[in-house]
# Entry
Amino acid sequence: MAAAFPEITKIQYEGPASANPLAFRYYNPEEVVEGKTMKEHFRFSVAYWHTMRGSGADPFGPGTMWRPWEGPVDNLENAKNRVRVAFEFMQKLGVEYYCFHDRDVAPEGATLAETNKNLDEVVKVLKEEQERTGIRLLWGTANLFSNPRYMHGAATSCNADAFAFAAAQVKKALEVTLELGGQGYTFWGGREGYQTILNTNMKREMDHLGAFMHMAVDYAKEIGFKGQFYFEPKPKEPTKHQYDFDVAACINFLRAYGLGNKIKMNIETNHATLAGHSVEHELEYAAAQGFLGSIDANSGDLLLGWDTDQFPTDVYMTTKIMLTLLKYGGFTTGGLNFDAKVRRESFEPVDLFHAHIGGMDTFAKGLKIAAAIREDGTLEKMVKDRYASWDSGIGAEIQAGKHSFKSLSEYMLQKGDVTPNTSGQQELYENVLNRFVF
Ligand code: XUL
Ligand code: CO
# Structure
């Protein structure tokens, strides 16, 4: 097969002064930061659905993307050919992981049996390409939302057959993820939610979702899939009320259904902002409770209110993400998956390189800033000092469980009032952060 990107050679690190648009200025894969190479920190991944399948279609018009390797019909041959293109792209970019939905990689057939067969055929090629390049599968997943059979949801559908079909699909997706040595499996809610409570039995739907996830975990055990399961929060889109609203709702759901020790979070930036949070809030909330799994790296547009899935270019955001990641020891099974798409107007193949290079560089710069902030220690000390009242005296006693409402009431009656508060110094904190950004 002829190269899909013949004029592009492997993207190299050229340093901050480089003006070459097809080079990294900050992402230097082998550079060691806090004892790990950059590539080990990030575990960058390409999202097959956007990068290889994004057409640029929107509600107002059809696709715009120019993808010269795509054949006139999306048949098996075309799907296999596309795999070669995907691996050429990832190799030239220097990304070591990818993620996919079953339906991204292989076309649906007329029956489930035929669809599974198609998937097996493409998985053979994926495996070949993985072996040839050393690129690995970060996580796999099943598309339980595109086909009209899932109009009412999959695991939460009012139609029991939709649940059964979804189960068959996830069973197969787990098998191929195992076959490809995938390091994880992600559940994103898809249409698991509702539009109006008037036609919805919420309790029943949630119970079904819990049962579905248990079946997945049980089946993984049965076939020997040891990868990490992730649950990906998103508050809305496609349904008005998604059950996986945010990290807090997801963790609550997992604990309520006895899945808390089986499934971690896959946190997506744009989903966090749709939920009225920042990504660092979501990461911190998950990490503090031991649920930090993986990241779908992108960004939204606060002037638009939907999931625009743009590539991350904001160094403040990547710095904050990296501060949290470094604080909690970084990824184990997870990674930074670019769940992001080029704009509809950026239709040329080379734009895929510009987009990913920008995202990788922005994260690399964020990592360097975060590491410098940590090495300096000022910010950490400021936060520590802010909580100093808990390090000794009454605070330390409360933390050690030595007090009750009664004893605290006695303490306060005797003391009369609290030790005066000190300033929160938000502006000073922001200035300290800026010292490392510019
Ligand atoms: C949808 C989304 C999905 C999941 C995988 O908003 O983020 O692509 O990441 O199903
Ligand atoms: Co995502």
Observations:
- The pocket of D-xylulose (ligand 1) is lined by residues 49, 101, 141, 186, 188, 232, 234, 268, 296, 307, 339 (CB under 6 Å).
- The chain is about 45% helix and 10% strand.
